[in-house]
TrEMBL record, chain A:
Enzyme class: lyase
Compositional bias ranges of the Low complexity kind: 292-301
Job description of the protein: Catalyzes the breakage of the C-P bond in alpha-D-ribose 1-methylphosphonate 5-phosphate (PRPn) forming alpha-D-ribose.
This protein's name: Alpha-D-ribose 1-methylphosphonate 5-phosphate C-P lyase
Organism: Chelativorans salis
UniProtKB/TrEMBL annotation, chain B:
Domain ABC transporter, chain residue ranges per copy: 19-264
Cross-referenced PROSITE patterns: ABC_TRANSPORTER_1, ABC_TRANSPORTER_2
Membrane topology summary: Peripheral membrane protein
UniProt keywords, alphabetically: ATP-binding, Lyase, Nucleotide-binding, Transport
Identification of the protein by name: Phosphonate C-P lyase system protein PhnK
Lineage start: Bacteria, Pseudomonadati, Pseudomonadota, Alphaproteobacteria, Hyphomicrobiales
Length: 315, 270
């Protein structure tokens, strides 16, 4: 990165954003179609991307195709900006596209995510790119691709409710907590990728563009801004998001998605925001949770670097 | 009330057909599947199709049930809002809707007709959910109701069909199909592969349900005892053609075609 020449701010050993122009054009065409038909899975000719096992390449390819030199990129993995994968993907795009990066949701123009939607509401002009391992919401019950394609084509979605029926008959309630299927714009049933169902309501009428990339299955789909997105349910078992009896131990938030963190081997534990930036931001603004002063709790806080800064700033 | 009964019975005497096949043929390369088959089926009527293995019974049934397009001939069905229509000229979504609402298909192999990884209740409820049922309690109640109708224990409602015996799987298949109150049900060797005692019980059940619900049925079997019990009329197939047809008792007690005579006598030896 130090060796970056004046005219280009990225490592010129690579084409801008790593993929060749033809591939990016092909992916953009698929993206345009996906945006035009909300929730519809558009096939595309995927490419390989260099990354750690388990991340999949769909989201990376979408990001590479939409990002420009003036963009600011945020990468989150399970809500955190500081996991190994999030850090290395951020570093990758910094190198191959020369883009600015950030952990602040409101500063990012492109946010690549795995497993979460940021707590802070997104704005017009922002792009949220989801990494998708399995794009087909019907796959678990119908292994035949020819058949699922017809089901989508003819909007035959009874099977989706069979999946929810099975949940209730087994557990007494809809036990699906992530990849919870949604109906997009009243037409296509879609997998929201493995985000917690807590995040499902955020997809509806979102001001940002939501793009989904599945690399292995070579499918792209999208939710344009201000689109209806309904989580499937039964009249007598309505959709509900997860709730926690406690507030975030560090920032005191009562409306965020909480992760359980084990503090010691004596059963000590706490619940903290999974969205590390959201949590740090709240603490910076002076919000305090019940364990905010506990050194053990602070040490286990995911975004320790940011938290330390806060300690200095906040007092 | 009596006026309604009267008009209904008048309607029956007019005998609007439910299904009409005309010159249906289907070959596999040089092998004849079925050849130039024509017949008319009326509401509530049960037609049996008998013949040796390889005589074309399954081919005919697959064409009639829209699972296999014929090479020649037409299959018309009395659609609820459109009247007699060629089922192979329907759009695919319309045809699929017909197949999962107004028709039922009981496959010889339950694996082809059941979702083995879905509970019995889910299997029965699937068609209801497919046509828009969105109340879990009602779907489940209806599922339990149908399990009882096919004499499956309510305690098995959450068990998967792979834990069921062959006879139970067959009964579950029947429940799964009848839940939308179809007007026509297709069955290919419904008692095939079952123990004799299990067969008898299943036949009794089928006869009761078909009569009680007034469903028309086309039943394919190589077993004359099955059609003796279930079918009003019989078609005897040989080398893909229908060689004899008529009322079941007449055909079985007084067969005219030499091939039918052979069939009947061989069953008597069994
Ligand atoms: N998929 C197929 N491909 C080729 N030949 C077939 C196929 N299905 C059936 N046949 C042939 O068509 C003829 C009629 O078969 P079928 O309709 O299965 O008879 P049945 O059900 O009376 O035993 C037989 O000669 C059979 O071998
Ligand atoms: Mg057969
Ligand atoms: Zn927090």
């Amino acid at each position: 990165m130090n060796a970056v020449a004046k005219k280009a701010s990225w490592d010129e050993a690579y084409n801008f954003a790593y993929l060749d122009e033809q591939t990016k054009r092909m992916i953009r065409r698929a993206l345009l179609k996906a945006v035009a038909i909300p929730g519809y899975q558009v096939p595309f000719g995927g490419r390989e991307m260099p990354l750690a096992y388990g991340w999949g390449t769909g989201g990376m390819q979408v990001t590479a195709s939409v990002i420009g030199p003036s963009d600011t990129l945020k990468v989150i993995d399970q809500g955190a900006d500081d996991t190994t994968n999030a850090v290395s993907i951020r570093r990758f795009f910094k190198r191959v596209a020369g883009v600015a990066t950030t952990e602040a949701t409101e500063e990012a123009s492109v946010i690549q995510t795995r497993h979460r939607i940021p707590e802070k509401p997104l704005k017009e002009g922002q792009v949220l790119v989801y990494q998708v391992p399995q794009p087909e919401p019907l796959r678990k019950l119908e292994p035949r691709e020819t058949e699922t394609r017809k089901m989508h084509g003819y909007a035959e979605y009874g099977l989706m409710h069979v999946r929810l029926y099975e949940d209730i008959s087994r557990f007494g309630h809809i036990a699906t907590t992530y990849s919870y299927p949604v109906m997009v714009n009243g037409r296509y049933v879609m997998s929201p990728s493995p985000i917690p169902k807590f995040d499902n309501p955020k997809m509806e009428n979102n001001k940002a563009i939501q793009l989904f990339g599945a690399g292995r299955e070579k499918r792209i789909y999208a939710i344009p801004p201000y689109t209806r997105v309904k989580s499937l349910d039964f009249d007598d078992h309505p959709f509900e998001v997860q709730r926690w009896p406690q507030a975030c131990a560090l920032c005191g938030a009562r409306n965020s998605y909480l992760d359980e963190v084990v503090l010691d081997d004596k059963g000590g534990r706490m619940f903290v925001c999974s969205d590390t930036h959201f949590c740090a931001d709240r603490q910076e603004k002076g919000h305090r949770g019940p364990m905010a002063a506990d050194p053990a709790a602070r040490a286990f806080a995911r975004s320790s670097e940011t938290s330390e800064q806060k300690e200095d700033d906040g007092r | 009330m009596s006026a309604l009964v009267l008009s209904e019975s008048l309607g029956t005497t007019v005998r609007q057909p439910l299904m009409r096949a005309t010159g249906v043929s289907k070959s596999y390369g040089d092998t004849i599947g079925c050849l130039d088959v024509s017949f008319t089926l009326h509401p509530g009527e049960v037609i049996g199709v008998v013949g040796e293995s390889g005589s074309g019974k399954s081919t005919l049934l697959n064409v009639l049930s829209a699972q296999l397009p014929p090479d020649a001939g037409t299959v018309e069905y009395d659609l609820r809002h459109r009247g007699m229509s060629d089922i192979f000229r329907l759009s695919e979504p319309d045809r699929r809707r017909l197949m999962r609402t107004d028709w039922g298909i009981v496959h010889q192999n339950p694996r082809d007709g059941l979702r083995m990884d879905v509970s019995a209740g889910g299997n029965v409820g699937e068609r209801l959910m497919a046509i828009g049922a969105r109340h879990y309690g009602e779907i489940r109640a209806e599922g339990l109701d149908w399990l009882a109708k096919v004499e499956l224990d309510a305690s098995r409602v959450d068990d998967k069909p792979k834990t069921f015996s062959g006879g139970m799987q067959q009964r579950l298949q029947i429940a799964r199909n009848l839940v939308t109150r179809p007007r026509l049900i297709f069955m290919d060797e419904p008692t095939g592969g079952l123990d004799v005692s299990v067969q008898a019980r299943l036949l009794d059940l089928l006869r009761g349900l078909v009569r009680e619900l007034g469903i028309a049925a086309i039943v394919v079997t190589h077993d004359l005892a099955v059609v003796r019990l279930l079918a009003d009329r019989l078609m005897v197939m040989r080398h893909g053609r229908v060689v004899e047809e008529g009322l079941t008792d007449q055909v079985l007690d007084d067969p005219h075609h030499p091939y039918t005579q052979l069939l009947v006598s061989s069953v008597l030896q069994v």
